[in-house]
Amino acid sequence: MTAEPLPFRDPLASVEDRVADLLGRLTLAERIAMLHQFAPAIDRLGTPAFRTGQEALHGVAWMGRATVFPQAVGLGATWNDDLVRRVGEAAGREVRAMRAKDPKVGLNVWSPTVNLLRHPLWGRNEEGYAEDPHLTAALGAAYCRGLRGDHPVYWRTAPVLKHWLAHNHEHERDTASTSLRARVLHEYELPAFRGPVRSGAVAGVMPAYNLVNGRPNHLSPLLSEHLRTWTDLPLVVCSDAGAPSNVAGSQGYLPGHPEGLAAALRAGVDSFTDHGEDSAPTVERLTEALERGLITEADIDTAVGRLLGMRFRLGQFDPGLDPFEADAAFDTPEHQDLARTAAEEAVVLLKNDGLLPLRPGVRVAVVGPLADEVKLDWYSGALLRRTTPFAGLRDHPSVASAVHVDGSDLVRLRTADGFVRVPEAAGDSGGAEAGDSVAALDPALLRGRTDLPPLRVAAGGAEATVFSLLDWGGGVCTLRAPDGRYVSVADDGYLRASAEQPGGWIVQETFTFEPHGAGHLLKHLGTGRHVRATGGGLMAAGEGEAGDVFHLETTERGEDAVAAAAAGADVVVVVAGNDPHINGRETEDRTTLALPPQQDRLWRAAHAANPRTVLVLTSAYPYAVRDADTALPALLWTAHGGQAAGTALARVLCGDVSPAGRLPQTWYTGDDELPALLDYDLIAARATYLYYDGTPLYPFGHGLSYTSFDYTALAVRADQEAGVLDVEVTVANTGGRAGDEVVQVYARAESPGVPRPHRALIAHRRVHLAAGESRRLAFAVPLDDALGHWDVAHSRWAVEPGTYTVSVGASSRDLRGSAAVHVGGAAAGPRPVRRAGLAAADFDDSRGTELTDTTRETGDAVAAGPDEPGELLFRSCDFGDSTGSVRLRAAREEPGTATVTVEVLGTGSRAELRVPSTGDRYAWTTVTAALPGAPGGVRDVRLTLRGPVRVDRLDFS
Fold first, then answer.
1. pLDDT at residue 259 above 60?
2. What is the pLDDT of residues 18-67, one digit of tens each?
3. What are the transmembrane regions (predicted)?
4. Long-range contacts formed by 685-689: CB under 8 A, 24+ apart
5. Residue 440 CA: distances (Å) to CA of 220, 359, 468
């Protein structure tokens, strides 16, 4: 007799019913085990193992060879929602195809990253789409739709957004707190997540390592207060790697790991990524937390239920019904074409004085450190195929000839005992030649080899090896042997020419030369140790051991070789930029916008030898290149473009494709225009295109074309009853060739009651138009999204009545048409302070303060430090007929007394409140003082905080 199938096996039942049935059959121990990233199989129920987490930021990562698309910031530069959706679909299809062969491949995809590119020195700039929340939300939602698929029941993959919340720094990323005021939270940070979540294609989010307002993101009350209110789908929250242990570890926020994990679970974290595949510490800590009453079984069941729901939607319990089995595909011609198209659409033409496109039959010198490279980043897959810029131009039918010079300095290294040599046995690389269509090896495969002989110092006049030396900025250098391999340090400490590319979590291929006497000490940055010669070869010195002195002899300067190549060419293409593993990456922020000095010298040398010089910046982030913009006839930027980068660039340079990429973030003229990296208050800091008051090098949305476009017949209507802003415009291609135009729609408030953006992007569309073609475009934007702001006085989203200007154009500063639109309604009115009081965190302006946590679970307060007074300003406070006293809720952990001064501006009324030590940052006290003169009416209020003190709220009577 055949047993009845268990109810959770019934594919016709609802996901909710199936989850409830399976959850009820699991033991408590089995449920707790499912909270770790690596959930075990339950043999007695026939349920398979499952792990959360599979990286696929721009193609499948960390699982070997895959189709590699442009970096996320490059996808952002396309401004093309449909293209990004198709890239997500291709990545999801490859995840499924890899999963069919390897169960280690996960279907819970930790992508995309929707952190906003607020600050261009952020080390992970390459991972985000844009500095603008509208564009980021649109592209993030598109990528998720591709990853999720469009089946009504099953999901191709389950996308998880990274990283919740306000995460744009790598310096002290697990211990630094982001001070996030209410307006920046609601107007800037949350919309980037809200758009994708509301699209219905997001399975969950991953909290960031940092703290926000003094509280770890993994304990964020915003997960329940906001995130999970945007959708009926039970979103899964997956922790970042190691972050659960940080709560009681590096952050010291709670006294022990059971408390830390319990707090995270109560806040809404469902899957704990900690200790790799070893679930024992997580299970032990959660079990102890349960036994101590820190969590309940209901807390566990809620989290496990959300995880099981995701697994049911992925079809894990329905073998044979998988609709994506036939859809799964890997390295198809369609994916290859899509990779090329995406790389083409990502190219941004920054400047062109008529040099581009290149004329047929041109002789080209392709020079610079990235001219014959295809660089990968930490979240790339290994290349199945590649084309470098040099190979793309060399093979293009319009190019008569192409020569290549990488511009590195050729050097020899000498110690007191002789020259440094690479033994001949190291020459057998087995690797692919630069420019080959197929990359031979993952860069990590050779890096750690110990069977290759180390570099040696050869005495007795033996011939020295000539190395290629590249300085990537800040004195950080790489050394490359004649066979193309980079000098690397393996686990045994010896230096070998063994790496195809710099890379790895800790890069082992970077060095710096430190002046020492008449020579230099050579320091290996991966180990932090100096290099010395031993009987076995060159190695990183041991603890406390001194390094040898090296003398650097230059046999050829890179700029001389570049100048020679440039002089013999019709056109020079200088390809400069960054290596994504060096000077700006996960764990490491950049220190400057400047191009590395060696690369700066290269374009200057090329231009001096040949004025027909094009600078192509291939990078994960913006540069400040004002001199190049002034001197050169043409500049382009592209993010690292993946496997088809070289072909795509060649097709743009030669005019097969009219460039239409647009900058997804502002390019500034210098470091002095940037706020501090940890200053997240873009309103006060006047940061990003939204508030920046200066003139940028290139504005947000900038990008030129080989054709021209005209905008006419702009019509704007605000339908307040329907809550929609309707915008229509006609766009015409007035040039002589087909091309794409990126139509950008911006809005600004003309007489706002609070500081508002100069203009904010509210809609965009990339359209292809043949020469002479015109098209009428229509946009319908929710009125709240288009014109609204967060009203801190009343803690709500509001559209202020008044006049707004809606503009359309080709960038945030190239506006081709504008129209005014009036929005009616009653004004919000002043703050009702007599009735509702003042929450300290709801200030209009501040100086010398930071936001902090009211309790470990919820609430924001304002803190001032010991050195300088802090100030808070609250505008338009309604005191009624008169107000006689003020009550302040505050805390002071330190001994002694702090002073908080309350001034009702324009009345002379001023009260000083002395806050005694409460002994604990969470021990709050209330102090009261009279307000002289019993002020009334609508007034501004200023608080001045002196001494270490935390302020929660004020009440008036």
1. yes
2. 999 999 999 999 999 999 999 999 999 999 999 999 999 999 999 999 99
3. none
4. 687/118, 687/119, 688/118, 688/131, 688/132, 689/131, 689/132, 689/758, 689/812
5. 45, 34, 22
Q: What is the pLDDT of residue 441?
A: 40
Which one-letter amino acid corresponds to residue 91? A
CATH of domain 709-823: 2.60.40.10
CATH of the domain spanning 26-313? 3.20.20.300
362-407+559-682 and 833-956 share one CATH topology?
Answer: no
Q: Which fold has domain 833-956?
A: Jelly Rolls (2.60.120)
Q: What is d(CA 817, CA 514) in angstroms, rounded to the nearest whole number?
A: 56
**């906001």: which residue's tokens?**
226
Q: Measured between alpha carbons, how far is 122 from 112 in angstroms, rounded to an integer?
A: 17
CA 585/CA 170 separation, integer angstroms: 8
DSSP state of 588: B
The model's pLDDT over 73-110, given as tens digits with 9 standing for 90+, comes to 999 999 999 999 999 999 999 999 999 999 999 999 99
Which amino acid type is present at position 824?
G
One-letter amino acid of 469: L
Edge-to-edge order in the sheet of strand 158-164: 108-109, 158-164, 204-207, 236-237
Tell me the C-alpha distance between 411 and 408, whole Å. 9
Fold that domain 362-407+559-682 belongs to in CATH: Rossmann fold (3.40.50)
Q: Are 205 and 270 in contact (CB under 8 A)?
A: no
DSSP assignment string, 845-903: EEESEEEEESSSSS-EEEEE-SSS-EEEEEEEEE--S---EEEEEEE--SSSEEEEEEE
How is the chain split into domains, by residue range?
26-313, 362-407+559-682, 411-554, 709-823, 833-956
Sign of CA dihedral 660, 664, 668, 671: negative
SS3 category, 77 = helix
Distance CA 315, CA 129 (A): 30
Half-sphere exposure of 282 (CA within 13 A, CB side): 29
Q: Considering the entire predicted model, what is its pTM?
A: 0.96
Is the pLDDT reported for residue 2 higher than 60?
no
CA distances from 677 to 120, 169, 212, 686 (A): 9, 7, 15, 13
Which is nearest to 637 in space by CA: 657, 667, 608? 667
Instruction: Please give the pLDDT value at position 3.
Output: 59
What does the alpha-carbon distance between residue 583 and residue 838 come to, in Å, rounded to a whole number? 45
Which residue type, as a one-letter code, is found at position 809? G
The tokens describing 272, both together, are 């704990």
Q: How many alpha carbons fall within 13 Å on the CB side of residue 23?
A: 22
What residues form DSSP beta bridges with 157? none
The Cα–Cα gap between 748 and 805 comes to: 5
Max distance between CA atoms of the chain, in angstroms, equals 97
In tens, the pLDDT along 742-762 reads 999 999 999 999 999 999 999
Domain 411-554 has CATH 2.80.10.50: yes
Cα 683 to Cα 694: distance, rounded to the nearest angstrom: 14
For residue 595 the two structure tokens come to 């191009």
Q: Which DSSP string do the residues of 298-321 spell out, in sequence order? A: HHHHHHHHHHHHHHHHTTTT-TT-
pLDDT in tens, 699-728: 999 999 999 999 999 999 999 999 999 999
> Are the CB atoms for 392 and 592 separated by under 8 Å?
no
DSSP 649-695: HHHHHTTSS------SS-B-S-GGGSPPTT---HHHHT-HHHH--S-
How many C-beta atoms surround the C-beta of residue 913 within 10 A?
21
CA distance 62 to 73: 19
> Tokens representing 32?
């707790």
Catalytic positions, written as ranges: 240
